[in-house]
Design goal:
Radius of gyration: 20 Å
Number of helices: 13
Oligomer: single chain
Length: 283
């Protein structure tokens, strides 16, 4: 459930267990959502909702789905609900038939619907029924779910309109200046996923949160290293500008990247960072 991709640069480095406030959520609450009547779906409605999420997960992410099968039923269906919610947001963010602004608006609408369901407004949306039930059962904060949603939108927050027809001639954007900037992005699209998952898995030691954050950073760095050429061909470079300068590589060179030796120092630098974060798994 790790997504690869661009974060707002004004964000402070997130603190473990203390994600920043969601502007969208504040707006919804201030509009009076908090005063909603309490809606209590029937057990059969909840069961059907989880079944829908299970189908979404099995259809869209077979690798995740089969990994979930080893978990107890209540945890398995909870992760399916979280995945289905992420899949919905991801599909909105990646939909090329809509402009960037339309995608932002559609994501805001999806989050508003989530917040209304969280506040007790009636809904017949299976994904919302299941994810809000999961949130209550496993004590998942609303802020974490908000960050999951916004993590899927980070690519379009700062990106210019991009046409595949102009792919060869499109400029390449270096998304982040420093590793600190990249870290913020990795936290939102990967570490937050881990922080949600450990709440479903269950843990006693609060140190698990810091370890989940670090493993998330490692996973996302691995994704970025793996997709360097593909991302560059789409006009995006996630490796920090400072790292490119340190080894004398231009962003435009990554689009072809035929000389492996030339790029080895750059990729080795990022791989060393990933290995350092992976060591959290040994603690």
């Amino acid at each position: 459930m790790v997504r690869a991709r661009a974060s707002p640069r004004h964000l402070e480095r997130p603190q473990v267990g203390a994600p920043g406030p969601s502007r969208a959520r504040k707006a919804i609450v201030s509009a009076g959502v908090q005063s909603a009547p309490q809606f209590s779906p029937s057990p059969s409605q909840v069961a059907v909702a989880y079944s829908v999420c299970r189908h979404i997960t099995r259809s869209s992410a077979k690798n995740f789905y089969y990994a979930f099968l080893v978990l107890p039923k209540r945890k398995r269906r909870a992760l399916c609900a979280v995945y289905a919610f992420m899949r919905r947001c991801d599909d909105i963010a990646d939909d090329p038939t809509f402009s960037l602004q339309d995608r932002r608006n559609r994501l805001a609408e999806a989050l508003e619907a989530l917040h209304r369901a969280q506040a007790g407004h009636p809904t017949d949306d299976a994904v919302l029924l299941a994810v809000t039930d999961t949130q209550r059962r496993f004590n998942i904060s609303s802020e974490l779910l908000d960050q999951l949603a916004y993590g899927t939108m980070m690519d379009v927050e700062e990106a210019a309109e991009y046409s595949r027809a102009d792919q060869e001639n499109s400029p390449i954007t270096v998304q982040y200046r420093s590793f600190d900037d990249l870290y913020k992005y990795c936290y939102r699209v990967a570490s937050v996923v881990g922080l949600v998952c450990i709440r479903v898995f269950g843990y006693r030691d609060s140190n698990a949160e810091a370890l989940a954050e670090r493993c998330g950073i490692a996973f996302q760095l691995t994704n970025i290293i793996r997709d360097v050429k593909e991302d560059a061909q789409m006009g995006r470079v996630y490796l920090p500008e400072q790292d490119l300068a340190a080894v004398g590589v231009k962003a435009s060179e990554l689009r072809d990247a035929t000389d492996a030796a030339r790029f080895s120092p750059l990729l080795a630098m990022e791989a060393d960072r990933a290995r350092e974060y992976y060591r959290a798994g040994d603690e």
